[in-house]
Design brief:
Shape: elongated
Distance between the termini: 76 Å
Order of helices and strands: HHHHHHHHHH
Strand content: under 5%
Number of domains: 2
Length: 245
């Protein structure tokens, strides 16, 4: 009988080192506690980011719902107002392109040079204003009125006014070199030549740049005013969660 039962080590299916490890975990308990603390700390570190993301998402939903309840005039100004700034940018591009063509006596490829000067400034101005003013404003990330207005003015001046002039310079320079419409200097006087050529054009475009600055300031001010209306309606509501229903 004893031979059939065998020794206690033979009856147990676990290896001795497994038994020792289990005894250490069960009797001491320190490793299990460390493991639990590590998991709890991981959850605690991860939860604030999730809560912030959830709160931001809920806030954007409330803002969007209140925005849909605003008058159509405010909605149209908010959704399509940047197109006025972009359209003025296209006009600046076409005007600068025309000035360079007259100075360089370019008579060919008028459509080839006019099309990109109308499209590229329009898309660039609309995209930059959307990314740096409108989206952060209505996402609740740009609460400062002065910051929003300054951004609008800078975008109007740099992207909407000066950028089309700088864009027209290399395009018309390549056309002048290709069609030999006017004599171009050598490499040693090239920078001075283009500086002297572009200087009167920048003076002529100063009025357009000023108009773009005022347009950007106006749009940013109106958009911030619409955002303030939304915040006032949010604070006037007793239970903001009802807006999500």
């Amino acid at each position: 009988m004893l031979g059939r039962r065998g020794t206690p080590n033979q009856r147990c299916p676990l290896k001795p080192w497994v038994i020792t490890s289990l005894e250490t975990l069960l009797l001491d308990g320190t490793k299990l506690k460390d493991f639990k603390m590590t998991g709890r700390e991981f959850l605690e570190l991860d939860s604030p980011q999730q809560r912030l993301s959830l709160e931001r998402f809920k806030r954007m939903e409330v803002i969007q719902k209140i925005f849909n309840e605003l008058p159509k005039a405010d909605q149209n100004l908010c959704n399509h107002g940047s197109y006025f700034l972009a359209a003025n940018s296209s006009l600046c591009g076409l005007a600068a392109n025309n000035f360079f063509r007259n100075i360089l006596h370019i008579r060919r490829a008028s459509l080839v040079s006019a099309l990109p000067m109308a499209v590229i400034p329009f898309l660039s101005t609309a995209a930059v204003y959307e990314v740096f003013v409108r989206e952060p404003l209505f996402a609740g990330e740009l609460n400062c009125e002065v910051c929003a207005v300054v951004r609008g003015g800078l975008i109007g001046a740099v992207v909407g006014g000066l950028y089309p002039v700088f864009l027209a310079l290399p395009m018309n320079a390549s056309l002048a070199a290709r069609y030999s419409s006017s004599p171009l200097p050598g490499k040693e006087n090239l920078l001075r030549f283009w500086f002297m050529t572009a200087q009167p054009i920048f003076r002529k475009m100063s009025l357009g740049v000023l108009i773009q600055v005022l347009t950007g300031l106006y749009l940013a001010t109106k958009h911030h005013g619409i955002y303030v209306k939304i915040l006032q309606r949010m604070h006037a509501s007793r239970d903001p969660e009802e807006l999500q229903a």
